[in-house]
Amino acid sequence: MCMKRFSNLQRLWFYRVLTLITTAILVHILAVWAAPRLIMQLLMQGPMAQTMNMQNQAAFPPRVTAASRTVVMPSPDLLYSVCVFDVTAGPLRISANPNLKSYWSIALYAANSDNFFVINDRKAGTTPVDLWLVSDSGSRSTLPIPAGAQVVVAPSRTGFLLMRVLTGDYEAEKAVIEPARHTLTCTPV
Fold first, then answer.
1. Domain spans, the chain
2. 54 phi, psi to nearest 5 deg
3. Backbone angles phi, psi at 141, to 5 degrees
4. 165 φ, ψ (degrees, to nearest 5)
5. What are phi and psi of 105, to 5 degrees?
6. Distance CA 54, CA 44 (A)
7. How many of the other CB atoms lie within 10 Å of CB of 37?
8. Among 84, 97, 117, 118, which Cα is nearest to 180's?
9. Considering only the top CATH level, what class is 51-188?
10. Is residue 119 within 8 Å of 97, Cβ to Cβ?
């Protein structure tokens, strides 16, 4: 009789541990899969995106200050330009010609927050950026791709573009930095 109770107790703990492990695995999978997508949806369709009207067009948020908290721990040494892209209806042409001696970069993020493309001052040099962003599942468009344009395949139909421009002394560099970052365009083709 003592063996039977011990066996039932073992069985009870086995099912408890199995339930705990299964729950932990499911929560982990949901968090790893869902969290990046939810964050990107908030970023691409949230209040800032609505206010700045950045759907398939460049937007230029104000300079980051110590009080800024739209991004966790924002850098006051960087100026940001953004664009929410949607290549469902067709390609998007992204162009910029910062022509700066300091650091700048353009990064593209998929709807799940994966970074899938980056170009910066070192890679581009003094050559203007001309990207033809297309969907991975759609046709690449029957429109002729301009000479010199680089085709970039987006892994999702929607995503986010983030341009960063470094400034050491914003007030002294403002006359050069602001026009440079405003060269960014995101235009549906």
1. 2-45, 51-188
2. -105, 20
3. 90, 145
4. -130, 125
5. -150, 155
6. 8
7. 14
8. 97
9. mainly beta
10. no
User: Is-contact 183 98, C-beta < 8 A?
Assistant: yes
Residue 125: both structure tokens together: 């040099």
Contact yes or no for 84/158 (Cβ under 8 A): yes
- Measured CA to CA, the distance from residue 187 to residue 2 in angstroms comes to 77
pTM above 0.70, yes or no: yes
- What does the alpha-carbon distance between residue 156 and residue 84 come to, in Å, rounded to a whole number? 12
Phi, psi of 144 (to 5 degrees): -70, 135
Which candidate, 113, 116, 117, places its Cα nearest to that of 39? 113
DSSP state of 70: S
Place of tokens 């993020």: 109
Of 145 and 19, the one with more pLDDT: 19
Query: What's the alpha-carbon Rg for the chain, to the nearest Å?
Result: 23
The predicted-structure confidence for 130-142, as pLDDT tens digits, reads as follows: 999 999 875 555 6
Tell me if 58 sits within 8 A of 185, measured CB to CB: yes
Tokens 């739209």, residue located: 70
Structure confidence by residue, pLDDT tens digits, 46-97: 877 778 878 888 888 878 776 666 555 667 889 999 999 999 988 999 999 9
Cα angle value 186/153/62 (rounded, 5°): 30
